[in-house]
Amino acid sequence: MSEPILAAVMTAPRRPIELRDFPRPDLPAGAALLRTACSEVCGTDVHLWHGRLSGVPYPIIPGHVSAGTIEASRGRITGIDGSEIHEGHRVVFFDVHRTCGRCRACTVHRTPTRCASRRVYGITDPASEGLFGGWSQAVYLEPGVAMARLPDAIAFDDYIGGGCGLITAVHMIERAEIRLGDSVVVQGTGAVGLSAIALARLSGASRIVAIGAPESRLSLAREMGADVALDVTRTSVEERRQAVNDLTYDECADVVLEAAGAAAAVPEGLDLVRVGGRYVIGGHYTDAGPATINAHHQINRKHLEIRGCWGSEIRHFLRAIAILETNPSIPFRKIGAQRYGLEQINDALADAEALRIPKALVDPWS
Amino acid sequence: MSEPILAAVMTAPRRPIELRDFPRPDLPAGAALLRTACSEVCGTDVHLWHGRLSGVPYPIIPGHVSAGTIEASRGRITGIDGSEIHEGHRVVFFDVHRTCGRCRACTVHRTPTRCASRRVYGITDPASEGLFGGWSQAVYLEPGVAMARLPDAIAFDDYIGGGCGLITAVHMIERAEIRLGDSVVVQGTGAVGLSAIALARLSGASRIVAIGAPESRLSLAREMGADVALDVTRTSVEERRQAVNDLTYDECADVVLEAAGAAAAVPEGLDLVRVGGRYVIGGHYTDAGPATINAHHQINRKHLEIRGCWGSEIRHFLRAIAILETNPSIPFRKIGAQRYGLEQINDALADAEALRIPKALVDPWS
Amino acid sequence: MSEPILAAVMTAPRRPIELRDFPRPDLPAGAALLRTACSEVCGTDVHLWHGRLSGVPYPIIPGHVSAGTIEASRGRITGIDGSEIHEGHRVVFFDVHRTCGRCRACTVHRTPTRCASRRVYGITDPASEGLFGGWSQAVYLEPGVAMARLPDAIAFDDYIGGGCGLITAVHMIERAEIRLGDSVVVQGTGAVGLSAIALARLSGASRIVAIGAPESRLSLAREMGADVALDVTRTSVEERRQAVNDLTYDECADVVLEAAGAAAAVPEGLDLVRVGGRYVIGGHYTDAGPATINAHHQINRKHLEIRGCWGSEIRHFLRAIAILETNPSIPFRKIGAQRYGLEQINDALADAEALRIPKALVDPWS
Amino acid sequence: MSEPILAAVMTAPRRPIELRDFPRPDLPAGAALLRTACSEVCGTDVHLWHGRLSGVPYPIIPGHVSAGTIEASRGRITGIDGSEIHEGHRVVFFDVHRTCGRCRACTVHRTPTRCASRRVYGITDPASEGLFGGWSQAVYLEPGVAMARLPDAIAFDDYIGGGCGLITAVHMIERAEIRLGDSVVVQGTGAVGLSAIALARLSGASRIVAIGAPESRLSLAREMGADVALDVTRTSVEERRQAVNDLTYDECADVVLEAAGAAAAVPEGLDLVRVGGRYVIGGHYTDAGPATINAHHQINRKHLEIRGCWGSEIRHFLRAIAILETNPSIPFRKIGAQRYGLEQINDALADAEALRIPKALVDPWS
């Protein structure tokens, strides 16, 4: 138990990721050490590497959503459902921790995703504090972290294929209040958008139009459940609007889900929602610049509802697991297009940055 | 009963209003003729005169919200509550008529304010079809128009003081889902904004900040219930934001109601809502030009809800009457600052256009 | 075009149904005559025959949901989506007509299913007024009836297999606000319950438990999507509760849908919902007698939501068509277990009364 | 600082309350000692004394809602709004503590009032653990308890006059979603009902009917804002229904709030809500026995919503403080009809049990 733990460290924006040895941590009561089976390189990691998130305490060990096996624990450890967790159990955990549950955001406004005490594995936890990221052979699960056993039917790669994108999409779908028979447009075919397509289908959407690029992702969008997948680089705004109208009595869609993260998506999205419909904006994790809208034509006269969707909560994490378990035929795994070892982590980041893959799987033991 | 009826006609945008005689209409079964006691010149009439609403069938008789006494009727006439309406009754009516109740907007989407068959007295009904506006000694109430008796406790001037602005504000308040204790900002101190202030107060708002101009309206805003009324022409965006923060734990307001109709109000309004709050956009009846927003900072990260609010429905009309009846101490009457006869209607329009008054009362018999 | 039309008439409760000739109606502008391809005998028809609905103007032509081909029409006839309807078109219509759209129920309370003017084909329309029911070779579609073309992909028998039960179930599912991943119990495996199972599945329910009888319906319940189907006559309340708990972390179900119409279902249903869950009561069309509940244990302490669900609206009718079109693999057709001609209508009624079939299809031309 | 602290102890149901000395507690970091200025004897305390709540760890120090001055603290103590709390500050606290924020009730179902870890001062905390109740000269505020400074404008007696009943009523009003102009019936004129009347009025209710007894409470109900207050012991069910209909177009009330805690209130309440209205059941803290309802007439056909309301959350506690601060003219203080010292605590309990007072104020220093 005394050999060091190898982890990949992002020392600063745009610097090559470095591999470092970390000491095996002492565990206080209620803590556990997770032997990492799989983690991920997602769009947020690219943003981290570009330095586009504020307040990140570099150096950090990235990898916010991860899965593995409990290697060690101290005291009684329980999952969210109250069942005990033991060494050897296959476990996943909710990357957001230290949400206080006492502040006005947590209690009065019921916006715990904006709690000021909130920390996130792989993003806001500095490497100086320990193994708080999944690009590592082990992850330190501090007391209070929300854990759940991963059902045997879900392979680690399936779970990470869904990963943070799936959890975010669960929140967006909840926020969208999709009703049986609704027509849905999904803007963006990255990890969030692809998951959102599948979840819209599961929620009873009648028609789903995906808008994104490149062709490989559009193809996967169709596999996830899109009736139509449009290449945003090869179609005009007018063509896309026409394609949506063709499926929706010329009314535009009941629901539009923004998972593109581009400023231009916003005015287009407003035009793709029908009068009285809902537009959920969930893809702008970082500042993509100003967007120009017309409040009369696009909001007031349309009697529209626009809903921002920030972060996720424990219930989204749990629903994601349940969805993976009960829907093995949905190819979430394919979102995690390729596996990389820690030695290849700079390649993984480069491939994700270049959009060659929606997401990289990280296997710290390969 | 055969003498002609005098009415004011807007023949085309920016042309002087003309007075004309109209024949007394034959009434089919279910129709009534209302002797007009009071009508109004509101901001929409100024828009009409500027030619800023599309599809208006000039010449028209303006005056969409009006009140009076039933002068004649044919067959059985009932109010919305099923009670009979007779000659001599003091009556008000809902200006929106011919909503079809069958189309997809009416039935599937539950957005009857966007029904394509919908017509509005004083706005979309041509003078060639008859007395469909309140700038007239009498108004023709066609079969199917939603009527209600005006309680004796409400003077005609009180009703028109509230008028269309009050009915619109009832809808905005419903859409805002104000909860007991919410802090509220109202952008705009015209007829809608002033009513919205009073309704926010009645709904249990803890703190209300009004933003508008000129000083006479701000003074009235305070009378309607605003704790603080800020002059938009004499304060900076930063000063206004600070004033809101000072009343709201530095969080910004739970709810912001846009009743300003200016493009610049939208980005400012987004900044004045707290994380997880609600922003209702109800003042953009016409195209006020493009607004620049930031989807990351102002919507996504704020987990915001933005709700467009278009037109109004019968229930808002009825609630407006009930509010006037049960709250006689609220000075809705003062919104209708001054009375004008039909001969003075061009002056009334000029005064409204110059913002010298929030609204003019029209008395076609003075 | 002058030969008479044969129809089956229910002259009074518990009297044999009689066949009678009716004259072919003159059509006013906006009306149409539908050559009936298929109608149904459902549970409501059994209630009608038992005299358990109040205010029914016997004699009536039963058959509230029906489908056919336009045989004649006068003037311009349009569907709800605004498209024209011509002779020869395959058409279905919403059985509820004459909803006024003006009264307090329609406008203030938004409960049009309780509009006092509302009439229903096959239930509240007397035979003395004409062909207002589907147990007839033709149905008179009066002006204003909401029609829609039946997509070619939907056979008449598929549509009636779903029929009124499907439309009711669409409303119940809307009222239940099922969220992706919810566990659902459906009480009752008649036409409504069977459809509700399928719709819960389409809406993303993770687990569905059906409770009903007899075995043939339980078998169909499994085909419609139930994970578990329990025979209410062969299991105890405790066994059923245990079965639900086994699928739901011992918490009971997120949502319970009551489509049983038995008083005993209510207290059991309250026990099968989890704390904070939703219980939709939609099966009590008629008075099934008193139920005994405990407000502390079953409502207050459970922080429960109970929602009555009465009738249906045009949007449920349209969603039912869309669901049939996009989900051809769901065996709605099997709910309409058997076809009967008009000569066999008393047999059909007897089979439905004895629960030998969930529903009979009526083919007035066989 | 070493003298003992005098507290009143309920040793077992129906035994006289005893006064005992407790040692002054050692404070861990984050804890504080509150010198009690005022606590209360409410209906729940009567239930406690009757032994009607399950799982109470007698002996206990009752008094769940209390107010006072910080006498001692250790480490940094902050209120819910993040501001620091120091010795000498006037402070109130939320009686519910140890809600875990991690379990399925807290996170998945968003029903923290049913968290299994939840404890409540004065009810579920044993005297053996220390000063966890307000019938004591000091209350131990353990780390994590949610505190807020009491604004100077609110006297201690005002705060306790509202007390637990006000906080419960804030939750019920939230759950009722009262809209401006709604008619409201409040069943019960105890501490919860009286507060609910005031809050319904503040929320914009147009008409409020209170049902309760005895006359002294009905008189206070009128002062709190009821338009009509009916004596449940001197009127028949029919008379009460007629009284409600007289104020509501013969439709019954938009909203009924149950704060009576009697089984008979439930069927009556269901009859007093209009079609499509809302019925909030919040008064059944303990088992008041079975109620007989008719699901057809009272729920299904009425398209009703019934909502149980259990306990309260921090946001209700905070809103209660804000309401007291901004509405000094509402006589919440009168609910706490009379002051008692610790020596008189058995008298206070007897007076509350006999309904001679809605609530007793406890001043442990008198």
Brief account:
Four copies of one chain form a homotetramer. The first copy, chain A, is an alpha/beta fold.
Summarize this structure as a short list of keywords or feature phrases.
24% strand; seven-stranded mixed beta sheet; six-stranded parallel beta sheet; homotetramer; alpha/beta; 366 residues
Word description of this protein:
- The structure is a homotetramer of 366-residue chains.
- The first copy, chain A, has 10 helices and 18 strands.
- Chain A has 366 residues and is of the alpha/beta class.
- In chain A, the strands form 4 sheets. In chain A, strands 3, 4, 5, 8, 9, 17 and 18 form a 7-stranded mixed sheet that branches. A 6-stranded parallel sheet of chain A has the order 12-11-10-13-14-16, with helices on both faces. The first copy, chain A, has a two-stranded antiparallel sheet with strand order 1-2.
- The longest helix of chain A has 21 residues.
- Chain A is globular, with a radius of gyration of 20 Å.
- At the A-B interface, strand 14, strand 15, helix 8 and strand 16 of A face strand 14, strand 15, helix 8 and strand 16 of B.
